[in-house]
Amino acid sequence: MGLSKRARVIGISLATAAVVGAGAVAAFSAGAAGSSSGSVTAAFAKTSDWGTGFQGQYTIANSTGQTVHGWTVSFDLPSGERISSLWNGTMTAAGQHITVANPTWAGDIATGTSATFGFVVDATSGSTAPQNCLVNGASCDGGTPGGGQSSAPGGAPSTAPGSSSAPSSAPSSAPSSVPSSAPSSAPSSAPSSVPPPPASSGSYSFAPYVDTSQRQDLGAIATAAGAKDVTAAFMLAGGSGCTPAWNGSADAGFEGALKAGVADLRAKGGDVIASFGGANGTELAGACKDVPSLKAAYKSVIDAYNLTHVDFDIEGAATTDQASITRRAQALAQLQADYAAAGKTLDVSLTLPVLPSGLTQDGVNIVTAAATNNLKISVVNVMAMDFGDWAAPSPSGKMGQYADQSAQSVHDQLKSVYPGATDAQLWSMVGITPMIGVNDTSDEVFQVSDASVVEQFAAQHHIGRLAMWSLTRDQACAQPSSWASPTCSSIQQNTYDFAHTFEAFTG
């Protein structure tokens, strides 16, 4: 989700970006860098800064007298900084030198208009803006190549639908400022250990995703939205390989704040589901090369946060990596057995790309692998977003219907994997996660009215879970936006309209 993506939602994998980005660079027109009547510029702005990292945005503006067909922005990050997620572009990295090319769906910039891409940077100490910016080979300030960048303040997935969609660590571009209604402060101190979920924590019927790369207070944002339970995304493999890290980058300060947020949430009767994977980075099953090491990595996260519910967002190349799919299923099945022997529960959900016609065959294979390896799956959660015109034509006013159709199709597919299950049992295994507001496929807009359609369908069929990407986005943008944003929905709405609509669902 996400993509991340995602997405999800959202975001891109670096391996895919290296191929797509190279193709996009080759497509640039010779005149894209400027003309006698103007130039192409790229202005950088920080949209958020938390000391050990920041969220940044480049705005590429075209003041030439002609349409720019394709763009690329390159810059250097200071030592100790790395990009953990990026949206609205395809990225390649050579050490600290970063190149970002236009996504396949947004290559042209008409004269007098602009395009943006955003990213999250993790830093070991401090957070310094990028340097040596070039746009289409020329200085980002419109001068000659090699100059410094402009620092003027600025104002799902690029892959085909069905192969990778939805929640990821950050969908698309960010507004120039984050609306103040979303809580962003961290708890003042972290508990030494996280208390277990309350005995009455409930059914987890509505558990919206919270994009942890936005560094929000988990307990505060859930309380503000009225959400009892939330899904924290995403846990990935860190830089040292088979080592868990939120958003792929170890940050003790952030982890402490997150634990405090979980404790706060549980003190109010709620709970957290930890989501592993997403569209960006590497899920632990891809980094840990044997079942014992993967099992130990998962267990370290589960025990650190006293988790009873975990989610696995599997998309992109991970949907076809049979070795990692099998490792994941075997490691989790062993953990379920171990925790059961100790009198504990480990509830596992799978979050997978979907079309109105259902899961791709790769998705069906992932569910089948779980059943084959004795892994009990509670929910198959579908990423109802970024379908594409060929799969979901004329989406305006129909996104709720397409989400419902996706859920119906998955319910029917599950019959072949679990032939002994009743119809009610199969429905209890279905989850629906739309991307609220403007999707990465920007003509797909999920309105509050669509949320009502989905909530009614969910209640009628007593599905297993409703979620959304993301609670962080459940507010109007501070400024008008036609792109998907990681911090707002890009539509007109009241704050937490989507959460309040979905909260009516109780299973």
From TrEMBL:
GO molecular function: lysozyme activity; polysaccharide binding
UniProt xrefs under InterPro entries: CBD2 (IPR001919), CBM2/CBM3_carb-bd_dom_sf (IPR008965), CBM2_carb-bd_dom_sf (IPR012291), GH (IPR017853), GH18_Chitinase (IPR052750)
Enzyme Commission no: 3.2.1.17
SUPFAM superfamilies: (Trans)glycosidases, Carbohydrate-binding domain
Record PROSITE patterns: CBM2
The keyword Endoplasmic reticulum belongs to this UniProt entry's keyword annotation: no
Disordered: annotated segments: 144-207
A Pfam family: CBM_2
SMART domains associated with the record: CBD_II
Protein name, UniProt field: Lysozyme
GO biological process: carbohydrate metabolic process
Enzyme class: hydrolase
Keyword vocabulary terms for this entry: Glycosidase, Hydrolase, Signal
Organism of this sequence: Catenulispora acidiphila (strain DSM 44928 / JCM 14897 / NBRC 102108 / NRRL B-24433 / ID139908)
Comp. bias (Low complexity): 150-192
Signal peptide: 1-32
Domain CBM2: 31-143
